[in-house]
Amino acid sequence: MCSLLSSLGIKCGGEEKPEEERHLRANDREFNISYKYANNEINTSKYNVFTFLPLNLLEQLQRLANAYFLCLLGLQLIPAISSLSWFTTVVPLLLVLSMTAAKDATDDINRHKSDRQVNNRKVEVLVNGQLKSEKWRNVQVGDIIKLENNQFVTADLLLLSSSEPLNLVYIETAELDGETNLKVKQALTVTGDLGDNIESLAAFRGEVRCEPPNNRLDKFMGNLEVGGLTSSLDNDKILLRGCTLRNTQWCFGLVVFGGPDTKLMQNSGKNRFKRTSIDHLMNVLVLCIFGFLAFMCTILAIGKGIWESQEGSAFAAFLPPPDGNNPPFSAFLTFWSYVIILNTVVPISLYVSVEIIRLGNSYYIDWDRMMYHAPTNTPAQARTTTLNEELGQIKYIFSDKTGTLTQNIMTFNKCSINGKSYGDLLDFSGQSIEITEKTAKVDFSWNRLADPKFSFHDPCLVEAVRQGSKEAQNFFRLLALCHTVMPEELNDGGLNYQAQSPDEGALVTAARNFGFVFRARTPESITAVEMGQVITYNLLAVLDFNNVRKRMSVIVRSPEGKLTLYCKGADTLIYERLHPSCSKLMEVTTQHLNEYAGEGLRTLALAYKDLDEDYFDSWRKRHHEASTAMEDRDEKLDAIYEEIEKDLQLLGASAVEDKLQDGVPQTIEQLSKADIKIWVLTGDKQETAENIGYSCNMLREEMKEVFIVAGHTREEVAEELRTARKKMKPDSSDEPPFHKSGFLGKKSEVVEDETVESEYGLVINGHSLAFALQEDLQLEFLRMACMCTAVICCRVTPLQKAQVVELVKKRKKAVTLAIGDGANDVSMIKAAHIGVGISGQEGMQAVLSSDYSFAQFRFLQRLLLVHGRWSYLRMCKFLRYFFYKNFTFTFVHFWYGFFCGFSAQTVYDEWFITLYNLIYTALPVLGMALFDQDVDHRWSFRCPELYTPGQLNLYFSKRAFMRCMMHSCYSSLILFFIPYAAIHDTVRDDGKDIADYQSFALLAQTCLLVAVNMQLGLDTTYWTAVNQFFLWGSMSVYFAVTFTMYSNGMFLIFTSTFPFIGVARNSLNQPNVWLTILLTSILCVLPVLAYRFLYMQLRPTINDKVRYKVRQDKAPPPDVPRRFRPRRISTRRSGYAFSHSRGYGDLVTSGRFLLRPMKSRPALFSRSASSGLTLSEESPQIFRPIAEEPIA
C-alpha cells in the first residue's frame, strides 16, 4: 500500500530519520541499497495523472474566495434556502477553477518534459566489470561512471582519475552558479593511479564516509578509506551535478549523492514567497466583506422575521407556509438565502483578473526596448508576475556598489612605489593635467608580450622600470608572482589570463605590460618573463585570501636560492604587519593612498619579506600539519599564516579604477526627486564608498552635513548616533515615535517617519554597523538613518546587508527594493520586498535569485517611474472600479429585499447574474487595467514627483475602499428607486401594462450596466482602440444576449430556464424606458463629476497639476537629454573592496592549474597590436624631475 501511495507522490508512514552520515562502498550496489539512498532520478513536478485533480483543487480551495463559493454552492443545493439556480455559482466557479487548473497543468507538463529529458540522458556506468550505457535515472550511489569532454556531470561525484596530467579536470559551473570561468578540480593520488584501466576501476572497493546531503556548494567534508589508508576529502575532489566537463578528454567518478540528494537539487528549494502590500490589504478587505455580508444578511433576516409575524398571515391563504415554519425559523432560512443572493460582494473573478493584469504588465517589462542593453544582448526580464504594482510603492532602495553602480571592469590607473606616485601628468608648474581620450599613451612597443589593450599615460614609470629601478622592478615582480591567476596560451601565441576577480586580472596585466610577464605555473613553480628573461621560481606556499584575512601571500625561491614572501592586501592590515623601519615610507604612501581614494580608486598595499631557510623549514612543517588537520583546519591555517606575515617591508601601493556605469548619477537624482531613499551597502573602504557617493549624486555638496559614524565600541557608536540625530532634529525625543499597525491580527510596532528641515547624509563603517544593529541600538540607528537623504554602509558583510534590509522592513511602514550583481548580494535581494539582479561581471547568482533583472543600473528609473507607477496606478483603478461595480450590483439586491417581503427574490434575471462579472463587465475593466496611463513615459521622467502617491498608498487603501462603498451605496439607491418609481403604474404607448417584475428586472439591470460603464469611462484616462472595442463590444454583447435569451425560441426550447419571454421587445422599445436609463446614468455620475471638479480646483493633486501642464503644452515634451559626466578630480577618500569569496590558492599549490590551452575560451584580446601612439604637438609638455632621493 505504501509503495502505491509513493508512486502517486504521497508520503506514507512516519517521518524518516534525518541522515547523519553517508557511508558508501564503490562497486557494491547491494551494500549501498541497504541504506536506501535516493537514486539519480529527479522529479520537480507537483502532480501526476492521479494526483492532479485532488491536489490542485485542494490548493485552489485554500484561497478564501474559492472555498467560500464552494460552500455557497452547497447552500444552493438545499431547496429550502436556494433562491438562485445552481448554475449562477457553478458556471463562474468552474470557469475560474478551470482556468487556474489549465495554467497549473501546463506548467507541470513542462516540468515533466524537462524531468524526462534530464532523466533519460545517457552516461557510461561501470557494471559487472564493463562500461555500459545507462540512463541517468538508473545510476545508483556507489556506481563508477565515465564522463567525456563537454558532458554534463551526472550526479555529485568523487573524482577518481582523469586524462589530464596530475589528474586534473576543468569544469564550467554556469548552470550551477552562473559563472562561465573554468574551475579546476584534482583527484587524490591513490585513486588517480587507477587511470582508465577498467579492471582496476572494477576492482576498486574504496569506502566513503562523508557529510549528509546539504545545500552548501562551497564545502564538502569526508574521508576515503582504501586498503587501510584514510585520505581526507574536500570540495576540490568533488564534481557537482549541473557542471560541464571542459578541456578534459575523460574522467571517472564515484557517485556520492544522486538525484534529490545532489547539492544542485538541495539548492533548488522554494524561494520565499513574496506578496505585495495590496495582496495583504486584499486579505483584510475580503474578511471585512465577509463580515459586512453577514451584517446585511442579518438585517434582512430580522426584517423577514418581523414581516412574517406582522404581514405574513395576510398571504397565508394563497402562500401557505410549510408545516412547522414559524417566523424565527423562516428568518433563519432567509439569512442563508441572502448569503446566496448577495454573494457577489466577494467577487470570484477578482483573483483571475488580477493575475491577468499582472501577467500583462510583466510582459510590458520584458518587451521594453528602452531597457534592452545591446552591447551584452541583455533584455529586461520580469522573473515574477506577482509584484508589479509593488514597484510603484518603493520607499527605500538598497544597492551594492561594485558592479551595480560601477562597471566592475578594472584598469590599472596609478601606483606609489618607494614614496613616489606614478600615473598623474604634471605641467611645468607642477599642476595635474586632466587625462582625456586624446591624451597620449605610453608606448609599450618595446615589450613584445604587452597587452595591446592596456593603456597608461605616465612615461616616468616605464623609464624607472627600464632603467633598472630596484624598487619598481620588485613592485611589478610581486604583482606577477602573488596571485591565483590561471594563464592560457592562445593558438596565435597570445596570452590570456583567467582571474578570479577583475582586480587581480588588472594587476597581473599591468605587470605584464611593464616587463614582468606571468607565463605559466605548476604546483611547484611559477614561470615569468622579467624584462625579456625567462625565470622560474619555486612556489613553496600560497597563503590564500579569504574574507577575514583580506590579503594573500606567496613564498617563492628564486633561481639564486633566495627565499622571499610577497604579500598584497588592504592597507590597514598590511600596515599592522610592517617592520618599524617603514614608518617614514608608510606616511608618504598613506598620503598617496588618500589621494587615490579621493579619486574613487580601489587601493592595495604591497610588501615583501626575505626569509631565513631554517625558520622556513620549521614553519613549513607546522603548515603541513595544519593543512591536513581534520578539525578546525581553517583556524589553524590562519594562525600559521599570521605567524609568518609580520615584519614586512613596504614596497608601495596600487590603485585600480572601477568606473561608474552610464547614467548612474542621473538615475539617482531622478529617484531622489521621487522621494526614494537610497542606501548603498558595500564591502568597500569608507573613503571609496564616500567618494562614489559624491560621484553618483547620492551625497551632494549642498547637504548641510554628512555624518561619519566610525566608533569602535558600543558606547561610541550610540553617542555618535544620538549626537547626529539631535543635530538634525534638536526637539526629537529619546523615545522613538511608534505607529501601531496591524488589523485583525498581531500588532507590530513601526517607527514613524520624522521630518527634518535640511538634507543630510550618513556614512557608517562595518564594525560600527555591527554595534548599531544590536537590539538596544537598532532603533536609534534606524531613526537617525531614516532622517538622512542618503546612507552609505561600507565594509559590510553579506549578512549585515540582509540585516539592514530586514530592520527597515520590520520597523518602517515602507516597501523596500534591493539591487545587486554578485553572490554577496543574494541574501539582501531575497530579504527585500523586491529583489533586482544586474547581469554583470560577477556571475548570475544575483539574477537567479531576483524578481527582476536587467543589465544596467540606469534602467531602474524606468522600471520604477514608468512600469512600476503605471502598474500600481492600473491595479488601484481596477480594484476601486471592481469593488464599485460589484457593491453597486449587490446593494440593489439589498434594497429590493424591503419591497419583496424579504423573500430572497432576485432583482435581476438569473442569467444576468451569471454573466455580469464573466462577460458584461470583464473586458472593459481589463482594458483599463492593461492600457491606462495618466501621463506618458516622457512626462513620468520629467516629473518624478508623480511617484510619491504610491509610497503613501493614496490610490487604494482602507479609506479608499470605504469611499468606494459609499459611492456604491449612493449609486445603488439611484439604480433601484428611480427605475422602481419610473415603472410603477406605467403603461406602454398602446396602453398595455409593463409594471411587472420582469420588466423592472430588465430596466434595473440595463441601468446598472450603462451606469457602471459610464463610470469606467470617467475612470479611464488613456483611451485606445482596444478600450473602445471592449467597452462598446460588451454593451453590444449584452443587448444581443438579452434579446436572444428573452426570445420566443429560447423559451419554447428551455421553458424553465429562460422565462423572460418577450420582455426585451416589450420594454426596450419605449421612450420612457430609455429616458429612465439616461436619467439614472446621469444621476450616478453627476456627483462624481462635481466632486472631481471641485477637488481639482480647491486641492489639486500632483497628478492633476501635471496633467494640466500636459494639456497646456501643445507639442509633446522633448526627451530628457543624456548628460555625460566629465572626469572628476576630487580629494575625497576612497578605497579597495574585496570580493566575498575564497581565492584559488589551494588549487594552485595542489596542482590544479591550467596546463593545456583552452581552445574553447575566447581570447581576452588579439595579438594585433594597435598602432603606436606618439606625443603630438598639441599634447601637454610633461614635467619630470631629473633626480629624486629614495626614502630610506
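That was protein one. Protein two is written in the same sequence-then-structure order:
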Amino acid sequence: MPTNFTVVPVEDGTSSPDYDGRISAEDNKSSGLPGPYSGDETRGEDSPFISDRDWSSDRKNMALFEEEMDSTPMVSSLLNKLANYTNLTQGVADHEEAESEDGIKRVTVKGPQMGTFIGVYLPCVQSILGVILFLRLTWIVGTAGIMGSFAMVFMCCACTLLTAISMSAIATNGMVPAGGSYYMISRALGPEFGGAVGLCFYLGTTFAGSLYILGTIEIFLMYIMPNAEVFETREHNMRLYGTCCLASMVLVVFVGVKYVNKLALVFLSCVILSIMAIYAGVIRTAIQPPDVQICMLGDRLLGNQNFKCVKTEVIDNITYPTKLRELFCDGPFLNATCDEYFIQNNVTEMKGIPGLLSGVISHNLWGNYGPFGSLVEMRQQSEALQDYSNVNRPYVLNDITTYFTLMVGIFFPSVTGIMAGSNRSGDLRDPQRSIPTGTILAIITTSITYMSFVVLFGACIEGVLLRDKFGYSVNRIPVLGILAWPSPWIIVIGSFFSCCGAGLQSLTGAPRLLQAIAHDGIVPFLQVFGHSKFNGEPTWALLLTAVICEIGVLIASIDAVAPILSMFFLMCYLFVNLACAIQTLLGTPNWRPRFKFYHWSLSFLGMSLCLALMFVSSWYHALIAVVIAGCIYKYIEYRGAEKEWGDGIRGLSLNAARYALLKLEEAPPHTKNWRPQLLVLLSLDSDLAVKHPRLLSFTSQLKAGKGLTIICSVLQGTYMLRGTEAKRAERSMKTSMAVEKTKGFCHVVVCSNLRDGFSNLIQSAGLGGMKHNTVLIAWPNNWRQAEDTLTWKNFIETVRETTAAHQALLVAKNIDHFPSNAERLAEGTIDVWWIVHDGGLLMLLPFLLRQHKVWKKCKMRIFTVAHLDDNSIQMKNDLQVFLYQLRLDAEVEVVEMHERDISAFTYEKTLVMEQRCLLLKQMQLSRTEREREGHVFHQRGTKTPARHRERNSPASDQVHMTWTKDKLATERNRLREASAGVKDLFSMKPEWENLNQSNVRRMHTAVKLNEAVVNKSQGAHLVLLNMPGPPKNKDGDENYMEFLEVLMEGLDQVLLVRGGGREVITIYS
C-alpha cells in the first residue's frame, strides 16, 4: 500500500528557516555556507551511497571538521539518508510527487512487497517448466533411453545449479538493477565481456520467444485444430501461423506489459495443473492402466489412420481385406501382391501404456537412435534400413537424425529460466535473501521433476510410443495427454497457454534487456534502442526483437531452434561462473556477498560444464556463438564507450601485472629480449601544449606499439601551486599522444627546477623491472642565441645522468622536420655512421624504424671509418659477414680518414669557440654582480613585506632594480664594445699556440667527420651518429655543445645515439 510522506520545515533552534523550509539567503551569506543540495545531479554507479548532501546543521557542533563537510557527510546524516532509501520497482517512476493546496510537498513512495515464494520461486518454476517438457521429453526418453536421458538431465541441471550458486553470490554482492544477468556480467567482467554476453543473452531470450511461439503453433495445429492447415507441408503452416501469433503477441506487449503481468498467474496455474495431471496419471497406471492400444506390424509402429489393426476380417464367414491391407498391397483383393514385410509379419495390438508395474522399464533403459526417415521400431535393426519417407505406408518415421548430443541441445532450453528471479530484484522485499533461496529451490524442484519424469515415463510407456513424437499412432494425441489424468485436454490446453505465456514473457523481457544495454552506451549503434515511449515501453527495442524472433519462427522447427537457444544461454551461464570465479580468486575488497555457500572451484566446474555442453550439443553452433560474441567484444573494445565499473578483468590485469613485475625483478632481461623502453622528455610551451609533437610521432615509429613508452615533462614551481596545471598538462599530452598514435603512459612532475625534475624522472620513472632503458630528447636548437644558459646546461646534465644510470640516449636534431605518421617516405636511405661500438644500438634502431610503414621503403646503409693502419677491404668484408649473422640487410661502406695536419679552419673555429666561452663567462659574471648590487640596494632602500622580498629574490626570474641614467649608459657602452670585440676576432689571425690543444684535436675530429658525413649522407632521410660523451670537467660544457654542433652542421635530420653500456643485439637465435 502506498505510503505518504510529508516534507515539513524543521527548526534547529539556532536559525529560523523561511516559510519554504530553507535557510534564508542572508543567513547563508553571513555564515558562508553553501546552499542546500538540489538533487538534480545524476547519481553515478561509482557513488557508494545514494544520499543527498545536506548536513549544514552539523557544522556548529563539529567545527573541527567543517572543511571536510563540503565533500564528506557526517555519520548521523549518512545513516539518516540510508534509512530513508527504498529500492523500487524497475521500469516505474520512483516517486510520484503531488502538491497540496497548502503548498506542502507530499511524496508517495510505493515499496516492494514480494517475497521469496511469489517473487523468485514461482517465476523461476514457470520459466523452467515449458515447451520442451510437454512436447519433447517423452520423445527424448524413448530415443535416448532412461540412462541416457537421466545423464542428460543431470548434466543440464547440475550446470544450472552451479550457475545459480555463482549468480547468487554476484546478486547478493550489492544491488542488481535493470538488466539482470547482463548487469551482473558487465559489472563483474567489464563492458566488453558484458556487452558481448549481454547481447548473446538478448539473442537467446529472443530465440526463446521463437521457440515458445513454435510450440504454441505446433500444439494448435497438431492437437487442437488439425483441420486448420492451409499448406500441405507442416513447415509452411508453422511459418504462417507463427508469424500471425508473433504479430498478435507483439501487439499485446506494445499496448502494455501490465496485461501480460495480469495473465502471468493464469499461465502459471496451467503449468502446475498439467504437472499434477501427469503425476496423477502415473499413479493411475499402477492401479488401472489406461486402455490405449497401438498397432504394430512385426516390430514396426503403425500410424492410426482410421483402420482396423488386422490384415483381414471375416464377415458372414467371408474373408475381406481391410483398409490396412490395401495400404500394403497393390489392390483391394486377397490375391493382390503385397509388401514382403507385411506378408512375413503379423499385425498385433499392444498396450501403449502398460503401467508402472508392468516391467517395461527394462526395455527402455538404453537408447534407440536412428537416421532421418528411419522407422520407429521395437528394436533397432542391425541391417541398413530403407528410406521410407517417400513410400505410401502407414509407418511412423523419424523426422530427424537422432543422436545423444542432439538430444542435449534440444533438452537444455527446458532448464533455462533461472534468471527470472534476479531480473526482478527491484520488486523484492529482500533480494539478497530471496534470490539465492528462491532460485536454488526452484532448480532443485524442477530437477527432481525432470528426473522423476524420465524414470516414470520409461517405466509406464512403451518405447515405440515414446518415440512417436507427434502421437500419430494414437490419433494425434500427445503422449503426455494419454498418460495424464483425468483428460488429455488438460495437457493440451495447459501446454498451449504455458507456451503462450512464456512467449509473452520473452517478448517482454528481451526488449528491456536491449534497452539496458543501450542505456549503458557501450555499443554506439544501439543508442536508438534505448528510447522508449511515454509509458516506458522500449518501442524500438520491441520492433528489433520482433524482427529477430521472426527469423526463428521462419525456421519452423522446435528441434532446429532449440540448439541455437542453448548456445546463447550456455555462453551467458559460462560467463556468470567466470565472473564469480575471478572475483573470488582475486579477493577484491568489494567482493562481500551475503550468500556464503559458494567457492571458486564450483564456479570453475560450472564454467567447464557449460563449455563442454556447448560443444557437445552442437560444435558448429558453439563456434558461431563464440564468433558472434568475439566480434561484439572487439567492436566494443574498438568503438565502445570507455567505462570504469571496477570490473574483475581490470582486477585480473592488475594481479597479472603485479606478478609479471615481480618476475621481471628476478633477473635482468637477456640480450635477445632487449628492446628500447623509452622515456621521452618533452618540453611544454606557455599554454602547456607540446612543443615538439613530432617527437611523439618518432616514438610511435620507433616502437611500433611494442614495449614500454613513458612520456614525461617537468613544470617549474611547487606542486601546491601548480598541481592543477600539471593535471591540465597531462591531459594536453594525452591528447597529443592520441593524435600522434603513441601508446604509452604520460606523467608531469612539478619540481623547484627543471634539472632536478629531469633527474628525478631518469632515476625513478617506471616500476620494478618495467623501467625505461633509453631516454629520448630533442636537441636544443638555437642554444647559442638563448639568453638563459640553463637550456644547454640542463641538456648536458641529462646526458651525464643517463650515462651514470647506464641508460641509452637518443637526441633528435630538427625533430620538427621528421616525418609524421601519415607520411610514406619514398625510396631513400637511413644512414648509420658506426664510429665506436655502443652495444649494437646504432644498427638495431634502423631495423626497428623500418618495421613501421613510414620508413618501410627506406634502405639501410652502414658507414664505418678506417684509419691509416686499417685494411679497409678486410673491414668491409668483416662487417658484411657480421651483418649477415645479425640478419640485417644493409649496404656497407668504409670511409678512409687519413691523419692530416690540422687545418687553419679548425684553429679558427677553436679560437672563436674559446673566445666566445670567455666572453660569455664575463658577461655572466657581470650580470651576477649587477643582480647582487641591485638586490643589496633594494634591501637597504626599501622595506617590503617578507613575501614581497621572496618574490624579488635573486633566484627569481625577474629582478627589480633602481638604475641611474649615467650608470645605464655606461653599461650599454661596455656591452657594445664587447660585442665589437667578438666581431673583430673573425678578421684577426689568432695566436694558435695559446689554444687548448685538446679542444683543437676535438674540433679537428668534429670537422673532418662532419665533412665525410655531409659528403656521403646529406641526402639521407635520417642520419644516425655515435654521440661522444660529455667532458668530466664541467668547465668544458659549452665546448662540448660546440663540438656536437659542428659534428651535425649541414645535416637536416640527425639522431645522436649513445649506448647504455650493454649489448643489445646478438647473432644467436
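The two ends are 78 Å apart (CA to CA). Keep this in mind for the problem set.
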